[in-house]
Design brief:
The protein is an alpha+beta fold. Helices cover 31% and strands 29% of the residues. It contains 5 helices and 9 strands, in the order E-E-E-H-E-H-H-H-E-E-E-E-E-H. The chain has a 4-stranded mixed sheet. A 3-stranded antiparallel sheet has the order 7-8-9. The longest helix has 16 residues, at 74-89.
Length: 157
């Protein structure tokens, strides 16, 4: 899967909490994971691999594990992600997500399988709700006008 590279249905993220550039925890990275997941939910679904850098090199989850106060392991990481998504999208949407782990090149990689959502999923960022869609190998924020048209076409009633 990694060898195929990023695309419409596959995204790589180095981390959900640990900022490799800063060398410390960066809570803003959690929002990046939420936006990427929302983009896939709102498009055709896909897979998000956490612990793989943009070049497709498995770097693992050890740094992310180290940011968890309780259970710095796969179990604690899965709980962290489910809580993150439950808060961001609601429990009904989070229940559709599938979290698993694979060992690749001696590194733990988180495999987040994201289905196409049956309804529009918004991300609350401060006082605004934002709408994201996976377009090609990117996650794009849509304007209000774009999102209204997209929702009408993607989820007709």
């Amino acid at each position: 899967m990694i060898a195929n590279g990023e695309g419409e249905s596959l995204e790589f993220k180095s981390s959900a909490r640990w900022d490799y550039r800063e060398g410390s925890v960066n809570k803003a990275l959690e929002l990046v994971i939420v936006k990427s997941t929302a983009g896939m939910l709102n498009a055709k679904g896909g897979v998000l691999l956490i612990g793989v850098d943009d070049k497709g090199v498995p770097i693992g989850l050890e740094k992310d594990y180290g940011t968890l106060s309780k259970r710095p392991n796969r179990d604690g990481y899965e709980q962290f992600l489910i809580n993150l998504f439950s808060t961001a999208f609601g429990k009904d949407v989070s229940a559709a997500l599938s979290v698993s782990f694979q060992e690749t090149s001696g590194q733990d990689i988180c495999v987040l399988r994201v289905p196409r959502s049956s309804k529009a999923v918004y991300v609350t960022d401060g006082s605004r709700d934002k709408f994201f869609v996976r377009v090609g190998n990117t996650t794009q924020e849509m304007t209000t006008k774009e999102s209204v048209a997209y929702v009408k076409e993607h989820w007709p009633k």
